[in-house]
Design goal:
The two termini are about 25 Å apart. By secondary structure, this protein is an all-alpha fold.
Length: about 350
């Protein structure tokens, strides 16, 4: 039931607003930006792994997903650190094995389970009794509803959206659901697709993960165009996106938007909107390789330095840096595509 992690199709007959740009950025500028951020992501991930035993989306999931993406585009990564992040993720899930079998899950509930399995999917981790138990937990969670609810303790923007919680559950079930669960998974995801297509969004996070989920669910191309255009319509004059209408553009909203638009297959890297987004990211990257985003989440754990800059803003800035790095790396053809030529 594993689906490809990357969507490489580019749909034809695009509207005028999605046609190819006349100008590209110098590859060297993008390469340098990606390499700087890779080093910082790996360093901070290593520090977090030593300092904390818990799994996190910002220091385990997104770094692994980002490093998987950049490696597929020909960038070198620290393979040992990458493997250790995968092993930490698997170990964390193993520690909650009995809780998953009992339908209780771990701290963070469905978001932890979904992000952790998405992480293992990215690293091509083999299915086992642990991943099957976590998938079973996700299948049973919020079973009376077509969506998955976020944790009761929200940390906007990364935790608190039904669309985010639903999207990571979709990724996980399609990857680690076993044959015995196949019919139940298909039935639930059919309802999920209908809910996503009809539900209203309130934030950039909602729009991004709505699009990611629908692409993963192999939704009709007309619907993908529609929702991609709605996300495109939120792009600001500076080339970026904002988390909420009343906020300024930032790298988290911009990076997530660009990745979702490209994976949808509707927006290519030569599209003017994508190019403008790349310009925003290049202009706003710090010399240390990071992007700084101001947090709007209430802290729920004791503060510590994770090896990432920006103090109390370090976790959202780490997440923003991972997404922005992916968005920039996507401007390079994948190594697999080059090998096939």
């Amino acid at each position: 039931m594993r689906l490809a992690f990357l969507c490489v199709a580019v749909l034809s007959s695009l509207p005028v607003s999605l046609q190819a740009a006349d100008q590209d950025f110098e590859p060297g500028h993008i390469d340098a930006a990606v390499k700087k951020s890779i080093a910082l992501i790996e360093h901070s991930g290593s520090v977090y792994r030593r300092e904390r035993q818990c799994f996190s989306c910002h220091h385990q999931a997104l770094p692994v997903i980002a490093l998987t993406e950049v490696r597929s585009r020909g960038f070198a990564i620290n393979e040992d650190e990458y493997r250790q992040q995968l092993e930490r993720t698997a170990t964390h899930l193993k520690s909650g094995h009995q809780a998953y079998l009992a339908g209780k899950g771990q701290g963070g509930r469905g978001d932890t389970a979904g992000y952790a399995l998405w992480t293992l999917q990215a690293g091509e981790w083999p299915a086992d009794e642990i991943t099957t138990a976590v998938a079973s937990y996700l299948l049973g969670k919020d079973a009376a509803q077509p969506y998955w609810n976020p944790p009761t303790t929200t940390r906007q923007p990364t935790a608190g959206s039904q669309f985010t919680s639903t999207a990571v559950a979709v990724y996980s079930l399609q990857t680690f659901g076993d044959e015995k669960q196949a019919d139940a998974i298909d039935a639930r995801l059919s309802k999920t697709r209908n809910w996503i297509q009809k539900s209203r969004v309130k934030s950039n996070e909602d729009q991004v993960f709505r699009l990611l989920a629908l692409e993963q669910l192999r939704t009709d191309s007309d619907d993908l165009r529609k929702f991609a255009q709605e996300l495109l319509d939120q792009q600001r004059e500076d080339g970026g996106w904002a988390q909420l209408p009343e906020r300024d553009s930032d790298a988290y909203a911009t990076g997530t938007a660009l990745v979702a638009l490209h994976r949808s297959g509707v927006v290519s890297i030569t599209d003017p909107a994508y190019q403008r987004g790349v310009g925003y990211l290049l202009e706003n990257q710090k010399d240390d390789g990071s992007w700084h985003v101001v947090t709007r989440a209430k802290p729920i754990q004791q503060y510590f330095e994770s090896g990432f800059p920006h103090g109390k803003d370090q976790f959202i800035s780490m997440a923003a840096t991972c997404w922005s790095t992916m968005a920039l790396a996507m401007t390079k053809e994948s190594a697999k595509a080059e090998d096939a030529q």
